[in-house]
Each structure stands twice: as structure tokens, then as C-alpha cells.
Amino acid sequence: TVRLSSPEPCSAPAERETSFASPEGNSHSVELTGLEIEVIPVVNEFFGPTVTVSGLLTGQDVIAALQRRARSDVVFLPRTMFDAAGEITLDDMTPLEIGAELGTRVEIAGAMGELVSLLASIA
User: Fold this and answer.
1) For residues 56 and 90, what is the distance between their CA atoms, to the nearest angstrom?
2) What's the whole-number mean pLDDT along residues 80-99?
């Protein structure tokens, strides 16, 4: 979860919830320019819990993991869990479909630099 702490004065909410899904076993928190980032572990039920690479995550596994948590304003998903075009997961879900199931916006991040740019765009 990412909490965006906005400096005063600001018209944006002082705190917003954002999530970044990751394969189970890769859960950690990071401080980044005043943002608290929690990487949420996702158990890979599709291929089995011993599979811990983001390229083998499915949309349904992400949905199952994130539905158990408070809704976020934005969910960041790893680029590697989608096909070469960045449109479809292994279980044929699009980022829009995942977002609709979670009731939130979904963004795709391929690298930490891309994640930082996306975070800056929603701050």
C-alpha cells in the first residue's frame, strides 16, 4: 500500500491508498520521497504456492489477494505478468478487467523508475 502524504497547501487528499502486487515471498516496505510503499504478496494458486515469479502471476490470483484488503485508489501490477503487448495475463484477464473486479484503477510498472514516474503522476 502506498500512502501519499501531500505537502500543504494541496487540493489532493492528504492520504491515498495504492497497492503494488508481487509474488508471495517478496513482501517488503520501502520509504520513497515521503511515500510509504508496501508490496503485497500474492500466492500463486494457479501454478502452486512454490512458484514465486511475477511472470507467472494470474489476474485471478491478484484479485484474490487484493480483495482481502482495504480498497486502494491505485493498484500497480508488474509488467511481467502480462503478455508481450502488456494486455493479457496467463488467465486471459486485462488490466481493465482486474481493476473492475477490484473497484480501482490498475497501472502496470515494468521497472522501479517507471513505478516512481507513475507515483509522481498520481501525487
Assistant:
1) 7
2) 95
- Inter-residue contact 106 to 75 (CB < 8 Å): yes
Instruction: Specify the range with the lowest mean pLDDT, choosing from 41-45, 104-108, 117-121.
Output: 117-121
Amino acid of residue 7: P
Q: Which residues of 61-82 are buried (b: 16+ CB within 10 A; e: fewer)?
A: bbbebbeeeeebbbbbbbeebb
Helix locations, the chain, DSSP H:
59-67, 95-102, 112-122
pTM (two decimals): 0.70
Give the DSSP letter of residue 43.
-
Q: What is the mean pLDDT of the chain?
A: 76
| Backbone dihedral angles phi then psi of residue 6, each to the nearest 5 degrees | -85, 135
